[in-house]
Amino acid sequence: MTKKFLKEHQIAFEEHNITKEPQYIDYLQEKGFRSVPVIEKNSAPIINGFRPDLLKTLIAQ
Length: 61
Fold this sequence. Notes:
This is Glutaredoxin domain-containing protein. It comes from Liquorilactobacillus sucicola DSM 21376 = JCM 15457. 38% of the residues lie in helices and 15% in strands. It has 61 residues and is an alpha+beta fold. The protein has a single domain, classed as Glutaredoxin, CATH 3.40.30.10. A two-stranded antiparallel ribbon has the order 1-2.
């Protein structure tokens, strides 16, 4: 749902799929996350999970 939202609003993103790139599981766990998706900006997490309310703030940027 998050990817669909980003695509529909033409927000560029880089995807790291934890199934295909399991090293990102460790990366996310080190940052304290236990679920996906995690959206980062400049390596700082800004959204965890599907949060349409917070995703809408990306449109304004």
